[in-house]
Design a protein that fits this description.
Elements: E1 15-19, E2 22-26, H1 29-36, E3 52-54, E4 57-59, H2 62-67
Antiparallel strand pairs: 1-2, 3-4
């Protein structure tokens, strides 16, 4: 059985995600999120949705961006 790259669990329903030509195997979305989702520059939370970005910094919300002094953001979705 494939082994999860996040928790090491052997699971017959594991799935794979390819990011930048590297293949990862996970047994749950939770493990995939914990391993691959970007983190907010301000609060450190994993960004599950689109998030916000300014000059390479990722933010989970406008509030966190403002706390880091970012005042002009554009939605790229």
């Amino acid at each position: 059985m494939p082994k999860c790259d996040g928790c090491g669990n052997d699971y017959d329903k594991a799935f794979q995600i390819v990011v930048s030509n590297k293949t990862y195997t996970f047994d749950s979305f939770e493990c995939a999120i914990n391993q691959l989702a970007p983190t907010c520059t301000h609060c450190g939370v994993r960004i599950i949705g689109h998030g916000l970005e300014k000059s390479g910094a990722m933010f989970c919300c406008n509030h966190c961006a403002e706390k880091e002094g970012v005042t002009e953001l554009r939605d790229r979705s």
